[in-house]
Amino acid sequence: MARFKSFLLWVSLVLASCDALRAQVPPNGSEFPKNPNWIRSSVVYQIYPRTFSPEGKLFGVENELMRIKNLGATCLLILPVATDDLSTVKLEFGTKDNLKSLVEQAHFNEIRVILAFRIEPDAVPEKMKHGFLSWIKSYSLDGIYLMGASSLPKGFLEELSNDIEKFRPSFVLAVDGLGMPGSRLGSDPNFYGTVSNSASGAMPVSFLPPILEEDSRRPAGAAVPLRFLESYDNPRSAALLGAGAKAGAVLLFTLDGVPMLCAGQEIGETHQHSIDSKEVIDWKAGSKKNGELRKFFKQLIHFRKSHPSLARGQKFRIPSKGSESAFAFAASYRDDAVLVAVNLSASPVDAVLELPAIFYSAGGKLTLKEALGNGKLDRLGEDSSSLRLPPWGFMIWESK
Question: Taking a C-beta distance cutoff of 8 angstroms, is the pair 286, 51 a contact?
């Protein structure tokens, strides 16, 4: 009898090990990352299935995965598709199998999936936590994004994070705000407001340097900021910023944090689709009218991926003289260095930049190569260069 009990114990341990292993392997067989640091180098693409495709369903998103991958996005943020009680997928968006298929195909194409949930005011915390854990395991999610997280009971996020950590160390718990204990990613409305207002001319450029300062003071282990120029509850950047939209996008993809595009932003969509909207993005008309804009975003994303200094490096402002509309900063990480300059005004910029030693060779020559943009940089003196940018212009250089 004792041997039989020992055998049963051995079997239970083996099965538990198998369950733990399955929790770490998505349905397509590829492994989840070993830690949550994958989010730092991600490019997030926010989607609401109802407005994304004519079908308005999850399979409509799956059908366009190659287009999203071709753009350069590496993580989907899918807005809520769950029923209020978290029991299943809302019928208007499809079925459980549709969601499983979407996640599986996204993983196959090396795209991570974060699913958003609305926090219902009358939700029971323990039941809600059980529901989130069930969704994470059932659909092999890489993260969840909680909308209305500030209304959660104290300690809920930390407890949920600890429970997830036991079977998915790489999981990203995201929330709609920064500074919430237990979260690993948080949306940054301050960045949206500052960059949008500066790029539209409503706020002076002097409000941008504090972003660099705040980023440099962020404690190790703190939630990474999710940054954007538009989202489901904010105006479209093409409509809000007009000619300054590209300059704003340059800041989005070169400053610290995780950049997020809202579906349609890459084709200059100006109509704001709310989370309850049933109007579909006009991809055909937008692509025909703003095809070059998609190419611009694709180049910008590729550049960010090619330069670790943008996702991981130290950022510092470059002093400039002669213009109050120019903002320039440098990013460096090991042997990678990048210089970025933008003009957030409707007038041309002529300024003088005091460049740091990292952009000069031992012989005193500039080691910068033009990468993207429409500006001009000329050596003036020992440590200064003249910068010229057209209205709403920008320029990115990389070290040779």
Answer: no
Summarize pLDDT for 337-355 with one digit per residue, the tens: 999 999 999 999 999 999 9
Cβ neighbors of 300 (< 8 A, separation 6 or more) are 249, 250, 253, 372
Read off the CATH number of the domain in which 384 is found: 2.60.40.1180
User: Domain with 88 in it: what CATH number?
Assistant: 3.20.20.80
* 44 and 188 belong to one structural domain: yes
Angle at 305 between CA 300 and CA 311, to 5 degrees: 100
Angle between the N-to-C axes of helices 291-306 and 245-254, in degrees from 0 to 180, rounded to the nearest 10: 20
Specify the pTM: 0.91
Q: Which of 150-159, 275-284, 298-307, 332-341 has the lowest mean pLDDT?
A: 275-284
* Residue labelled with tokens 């009898």: 1
**Number of residues written out for the chain:** 400
380 or 167: which leads in pLDDT? 167
Residue 38 C-beta-side C-alpha neighbours within 13 Å = 21
